[in-house]
Amino acid sequence: MKSKRYFNTTGFCMPERHYMIDPLRNQKIIFDLIEKTQYFTVHAPRQTGKTTLLHELAHRLNKEGNYISVVFSVESAGYRSITEEIANKKIINSLYSSSGQYLNKNNCPISPEKYTKDLTLENYLIDWAISQPKPIVLLLDEIDSLYDDVLVSILRQLRNGFQIRPKRFPSTVALVGLRDVREYKLKVRPTEASLGSGSPFNIKAESILLGTFTKEEISELYSQHTKDTGQIFSKEVVDRIYELTGGQPWLVNAVANEIVEKILKSDYTKTITIDHAEQAKENLIKRRDTHLDSLIDKLKEERVKNIISAIINGDGVLFDNYDDSLMYCRDLGIISETRPVRIANEIYQEIIPRVLNRNLQDSIEEEGETKWYIKPDGKLDMDKLLKAFQKFYRRNSEHWLERFDYKEAGQGLLLMAFLQRVINGGGRIDREMAVGRGRTDLTIEFAGETFVLELKLKRYDDTKEEGLDQISRYLDTLGMTKGYLILFELKSSTVIPWETRIKWEEVSHQNKNITVVLKSLTLRPVTQTALVT
Q: Contact 387/486 with Cβ under 8 angstroms?
């Protein structure tokens, strides 16, 4: 029998339809702020449960009977050409139409069509609050969809009402969006650090960032499916899905939905395995659902580009507004909340390089029907594959690197694109990338064998020795004695022949057998983001 509930990947969750865990389980702070009549912001990346939390909060407050609460979106006023007057009308209409979902007629605000005063959000909220016997908790969703003067106007109207709450204005206002309130300032006037002492929402008490699921919460979510169907997500599968998703709520649901409905065709008698989780990951990446497309769209932004380039290279960073760029990427859920700075989860870590080098990857065609890099016994010939990349690099690197948006990370992206054929042939690549590590580690699994590649930009004379030490330590952690150190050297001269710019060297270092592969590129003089190791 098909389960009545399912793993939700579109819209907010409803307990009667979807597997879900209580969105307010760790949010005592929200109830404390409401009790103290405080204003606050809630921010989190898309599809992490913000709207689900808001709906649950409003319904719970109304059911308990101490407050009147409404969730409404201001997105209808979220375009640049709109005037403040029209924006006020659209936002008020959204509030009025949404109120009927949460309140009875006596508690709803008056219809905007019957409102006789100057129709501003401030006036409308004042009159609504005065007409009600209970304090109002107002939850504004998609606040960061507003632009420029409209955004400032709405925030200032809310600030103006702060002093007369709770009798003549909502006692609590929560602004909810992708980014923290500091980003509203940057969005209005990106060249200024703040809007000065008149900052339009300087009365907020807290800024709450919604977190990702813990491993225990994923188990709790998946156990609901087990209770309904008898189909089990084992501890090993849950652990692997946590690694793949980093607990990102949409990904946690999407991977489970892909396994249960798409791969196993809702046959609950079948056992869920780690291989199913890996297949689900690949399916999601290839299909690029809306969530992943939204992530990819952000890669075009300069602040995101700076951080992602540094992560791919493993470099430290030295550029203006680094902290703002870092917080922005964290708010969007692209990078981890903890140090070292790295891409948030394995699925993002996999899809971001693939997208950045997609055009190159599509242009790398197989030579003949046989996979020339596979030995007769079915094993991977890594030496042959990397020597072929040297040849490819010599012929194509300058041409392709000129076309990359991510020029600073271009060498690593070239290699990752070339190696992607390994995945397409049934292997797997794990990437270890983080700011400040001084390198990128690639672990390739194919036909039961593991290969370790370390990528470094050769900026200094001692980079090779440093790289040999680093890969030796990494091999120790894996219990291995063989690895590949790939050095990408940037040259400013145009006269160095290719024979000296491409090298292959077998080195014994700290009881390890390491193949050092040097690829040196002659660059035209360009202005690049400053990065330091």
A: no
Helix segments in 230-345, DSSP class H:
235-245, 249-257, 274-287, 290-298, 302-313, 322-331
Among 330, 295, 218, 316, which residue's Cα sits nearest to residue 529?
A: 316
The tokens 């680093």 sit on which residue? 470
Q: Which two tokens stand for residue 263?
A: 């791969």
- For residues 207 and 202, give the distance between their C-alpha atoms in angstroms, rounded to a whole number: 11
CA–CA dist 62, 76 (Å, integer): 25
Per-residue model confidence (pLDDT) at position 411: 84
Return the closest-CA partner of residue 46 out of 214, 301, 295, 243: 295
Say which amino acid occupies 209.
L
Task: Report the distance separating Cα 76 and Cα 495, nearest Å.
Answer: 59
Q: How far apart are CA 380 and CA 336, in angstroms?
A: 33
All residues at 6 or more sequence positions from 264 whose CB lies less than 8 Å from its CB, including other chains = 270, 272, 276
Cβ atoms 8, 19 nearer than 8 A: yes
DSSP 8-state code for residue 275: H
User: Torsion angle of alpha carbons 251, 254, 259, 263, nearest 10°?
Assistant: -130
Chain segment 139-180, per-residue pLDDT in tens: 999 998 898 889 989 999 999 999 999 999 999 999 998 777
Radius of gyration of the chain, Cα coordinates, nearest whole angstrom: 27
Longest dimension (CA), the chain: 85
Whether omega before 15 lies within 30 degrees of 0, making that bond cis, reads no
Q: Determine the Cα–Cα distance for residues 343 and 336; give it in Å rounded to an integer.
A: 6
Is there a contact between 33 and 206 (Cβ–Cβ < 8 Å)?
A: yes
Reported as a single tens digit per residue, the pLDDT across 392-421 is: 887 777 777 777 777 778 888 888 888 887
E-assigned strand segments in 406-466: 428-432, 440-446, 449-458
pTM of the shown model? 0.83
Q: Under a CB-based contact definition with an 8 Å cutoff, are residues 67 and 132 in contact?
A: no
125 phi and psi angles, rounded to 5 deg: -70, -35
Which tokens in the block code for residue 134? 């209970």
CB 255 within 8 A of CB 284: yes
pLDDT tens-digit readout, 447-470: 999 999 999 888 778 889 999 999
Q: Which among 327, 392, 7, 68 is positioned nearest to 185, based on CA atoms? A: 327
The SS3 of residue 113 is helix
Nearest to 72 by CA among 176, 200, 209, 147: 176
DSSP-derived letter for residue 94 is H
Distance CA 250, CA 267 (A): 23
Calculate the CA dihedral of residues 324, 326, 328, 334 and round it to 10 degrees: 170
Element (H, E) at 222: helix 215-229
